[in-house]
Write a structure and sequence with these properties.
heterodimer, A: mainly beta, Sulfite Oxidase, Chain A, domain 2, six-stranded mixed sheet, five-stranded mixed sheet, 3 helices, B: alpha/beta, Elongation Factor Tu (Ef-tu), domain 3, Rossmann fold, 2 domains, six-stranded antiparallel sheet, 6 helices, 29% strand, globular, disordered N terminus
Chain lengths: 199, 282
């Protein structure tokens, strides 16, 4: 039974697109565990590996030449804010995995500049659900928001949308990433409020 | 789904230097975070816009210094909302039993204009009133008394809250690890825990930065933190201090970037940010 906080009324925003426990945010808060890394686009690459062995790699210019999607999505941060209708430009993970033996694998870990990692079941990265995004709101993606490029997996809590992403490693076994080792849920579905271990 | 609950994460013991491994729970095993009931025991006015709430929380299992909790408020018709708040109280983990009152925590709440939760917590809540919370959460922005590295704390505004938890934990642990705190506040009236910071704390050097107005007799500059202040007030990069930076996003971005420019190892810098408009008051 819920405990009532005497005299609390609240803002009572009626928004069916808000997952449980989330509130509407109109700004774009920044949450990172360390300093914002500096990227040099001349030497930047995005690589897909399988258990560490390279399958494919793109330079910054090559990534820009791949077919890109423009999309508008709601994003949900585990720290409780939800931002509606954010607009992004990026390359679908489906496009990046085309022609690669991805069907042999069930899991993936995204690796980032600065050492951040996050793990996802591959089925949550395929089928038009995930992108390597480099554009936000009509312009380039700002460094503090993950630029030059971040993973974008809007149907999961936003820590899965790894900032400063450089590599996607395909794996047979699941392998917890940075926050997943530090108490956060292994999948992170906001509609099931999977914030922490055991949720 | 349950696999991560069955074994402690982080790999085998000895994978990392001891001072890098955050303790996860009193028994060092991950556990499910259920909702607990917190009852307000006392409130202390810290500044005109910030209040410390002391809560009695049956079932609370302790925390590391620097962690936060999720707070849930429910209205009498069932409407509810959640926010995160940093713990101001010391972390009990790594301290001798009894060093911290069991099942007691303190949160310092900075009122956010137009906030949904902070005005209730800071202005309306009275002793005996209840809320729900779960935690501790965040096993990264933490300090453990067994950590032997020097520690540099850099606080902007209410970003001082988790850093105060770290300082209080150091004091209770009797740690002699050298600490420095650089704390930026708008004016002396806005500074949290002013009396506590003014008391001598051996091994802890405190440097103040005032961005709008300084105390009478202040002989330093008034203005924002920049490279000169960070070079002069912080431990030099070659000391290899752990750096904890907490405050509004632009403050944390500037401080962390400048510290990296000055030669600090990015891997030793841990950050906690809030804003620009979020009510994550830390």
């Amino acid at each position: 039974m819920a405990v009532i906080s005497r005299g609390f009324r609240g803002r009572r925003e009626q928004e069916p697109r808000l997952p449980p426990g989330q509130y509407l945010e109109r700004g774009f808060p920044v949450l990172s565990a360390g300093p914002t890394p500096r990227a040099d686009l001349a030497s930047w690459t995005f690589t897909v590996t399988a258990a560490g062995a390279e399958l494919a790699s793109w330079t910054w210019d090559e990534l820009q030449r791949l077919p890109a999607d423009d999309l508008v999505r709601d994003i949900h941060c585990v720290t409780k804010w939800t931002k509606l209708d954010t607009s992004w430009r990026g390359v679908s993970v489906d496009t990046l995995l085309e022609g690669l033996p991805a069907d042999e694998y069930r899991f993936a870990v995204a690796h980032c500049d600065g050492g951040y990692t996050t793990n996802l079941p591959l089925e949550h990265l395929r089928g038009g659900q995930a992108w390597v995004a480099y554009g936000y709101d009509g312009g380039p993606l700002a460094p503090e928001h993950g630029g030059p490029a971040r993973l974008l997996v809007p149907h999961l809590y936003f820590w899965k949308s790894a900032k400063w992403v450089r590599r996607l490693d395909l794996l047979h076994e699941d392998q917890p990433g940075f926050w997943e080792r530090l108490g956060y849920h292994e999948l992170g579905d906001p509609w099931r409020e999977q914030r922490y271990w055991g949720d | 789904m349950a696999a991560p609950l069955e074994e402690p994460p982080g790999g085998a013991p000895g994978d990392e230097p001891a001072d890098e491994v955050a303790e996860l729970a009193p028994d060092d095993r991950p556990y499910r975070l259920g909702w607990l009931v917190g009852t307000l025991v006392s409130r202390t006015v810290e500044t005109p816009t910030a209040v410390t709430l002391e809560l009695d929380v049956p079932g609370w299992r302790g925390a590391l210094a620097g962690q936060h909790v999720d707070v849930r408020l429910t209205a009498d018709d069932g409407y509810s909302t959640q926010r995160s708040y940093s713990l101001a109280s010391p972390g009990s983990m790594g301290l001798p039993p009894g060093a911290v009152a069991a099942q007691r925590i303190a949160l310092t709440v900075q009122v956010v204009d137009d906030g949904e939760v902070s005005p209730y917590l800071a202005e309306d809540m009275r002793p005996g009133d209840q809320l729900e919370l779960r935690g501790p959460v965040g096993h990264w922005f933490v300090w453990h008394p067994r950590d032997r590295r020097p520690v540099q704390l850099v606080a902007g505004g209410s970003g001082l809250v988790p850093l105060a938890s770290i300082l209080r934990t150091r004091r209770l642990a009797g740690s002699r690890v050298p600490f420095r705190l650089l704390v930026s506040a708008r004016t002396p009236a806005d500074l949290l825990y002013a009396a506590e910071l003014a008391r001598p704390d051996p091994g802890v050097d405190v440097t103040h930065v005032w961005t709008r107005a300084a105390p009478t007799g202040w002989d330093g500059r008034v203005g924002r933190v920049g490279a000169t202040t960070l070079r002069e007030a912080c431990f030099p990069p070659d000391l290899g201090a752990h750096v904890f930076v907490c405050g509004p996003t632009p403050f944390v971005e500037l401080v962390a970037d400048t510290l990296v420019d000055l030669g600090h190892d990015p891997e030793l810098i841990r950050t906690e940010r809030f804003g620009p408009t979020g009510e994550v008051t830390r």
